[in-house]
Amino acid sequence: MLSQALLLIRQPRKAIGWLGWKPPDLPQPLVRQLPRVIAPLGAIPQVRTAASRLAINYYAYATSPRPRALSMASDYTSWLSLTDRTFSGRHLPPATTRPEDLPSEAEVTALFRRDRETKSADTSVMFMFFAQWFTDSFLRTSRENFRKNTSPQEIDLCQIYGLGANKTSMLRAHEGGRLKSQLIDGEEYPPFLFEPRAPGGKLVFKPEFTGLHEEKFFTEKILADCPDARKDSVFAVGLEHGNSTIGHTILDAVFLREHNRIAGLLKGEHPDWDDVRLFETTRNIMIVLLLKLVVEEYIKHIGPFDFPIEVVPFIADGERWNRPNWGAIEFNLLYRWHSLVPDAIGEGSDQLKPRDFRNNNPLVISRGIEALITQCSRERSGKIGLLNTPYFLVDRSHPDDPSIEERSITLMRNARLRSYNDYREAFGLERLAGFDQLTTNKALRERLQSLYGDIDKLEWYVGIFAEEYPDYLMMGELMTTMVAHDAFTQALTNPLLARNVFNEQTFSKAGMRIITETHSLQQIIARNSTSPGDVHASFHCEQG
Description:
Number of helices: 25
GO biological process, one term: response to oxidative stress
Shape: globular
Protein name: Heme peroxidase
Oligomer: single chain
Keywords: Dioxygenase, Iron, Metal-binding, Oxidoreductase
Organism: Rhodococcus wratislaviensis NBRC 100605
InterPro entries: Haem_peroxidase_animal (IPR019791), Haem_peroxidase_sf (IPR010255), Haem_peroxidase_sf_animal (IPR037120), Oxylipin_biosynth_metab (IPR050783)
């Protein structure tokens, strides 16, 4: 029995298999009672830590650890495929299926289109905005070459710090460790990106931000659909898409405020520190705060029953999955959760349609961060799955301009990914024998059968969204496994979490206290709010 107990700690997937366990198909009465049992258990530190360690390793060992023999650099193992991380990684070798043996891209795109919105069971629109803001920082496909990426390969809060030292310098105040900011009606926001102009005049980057983004691409592509009246309120932030939704704007502002708050606190406690040390120590603290939110709030919500999982100190140090980060093309694609986007946010005079929550910094400034976060936290998002992506992400706005969903499917095809069943097998799950095991939706089964003929020919990107799941999960079994695997093995390997780095010398005594006491996005928003009692920020949304 001792050997099995050790196996449970070191190789939990094998141990769980030895115990004969698999995630059960639970009856609804039991499902409704489980949160009442899990919440008090999760409040016990020893139980929470042990369960977190088990869950993290269960998913971290779901498939073979990095390094992988192949990347998008070549179809065979080469030095580039092993070392050049500007090429996206890949979990499995490329498929050999001929394009003519697959349904057309138009037919596959049509599988995603929403005719009537299906709401999620309990996921808020705030979760949707956080997911997009978070993943835009490291899932970055090169515009010039689909096989490559522009990712920093680490969770580094480049959303507010920029990509590289030169851009970070543009965004820093170079005083007191702070980031540049401005006050608008007493509220702190990033500075504006453009020079003041006459109505309808040409957009010109401020000299201090020259080179922050590629100017022509930014003004002609990023802002192509942005109403002219909103362009003067574009903020100077770390990423080119940082103003694309009210979610991006809100989160950039919140994390900028927290950075400057902590920098001020550190300056008071360490008056002998110069600007650079104040900035770098604050950035270290901020990155770990984000990592905690990702594990303890974001991934917690993705898992069943919102079990209070935690960042287990130094868990990666002794594990085989502790390898340098390298984002895979599959991880990039599986995060295309376009179906989370609702038809509208809220009701009545405050209702926001898609045109209202895209490229609309004036709305954030006028309504205020607290009010919008509360509204987004109380509105359910769409449900992840096929037949539920809003039309404006599926249909072309111009005949020569592919839609967001079309681009995703084209990337999947160009990457020559293997079948849905091949990925199930690679991640320790049973292969499905037929479409009836994939979904109970008869009409959808018939469409998939007509397009693919055989479950073994079903494309991975289609299968992960077709996979049916119970209400206590947020997505299907394979997608959950792949999300958790890549998230845990790439968040918890961050160098700031290593045993010889995670200490007061790196973060300061005050920084360690802030890290220890912070467990939620709501805490960060509230301590930077003029009305903290009005803040309601949650990824969980009860059915209304």
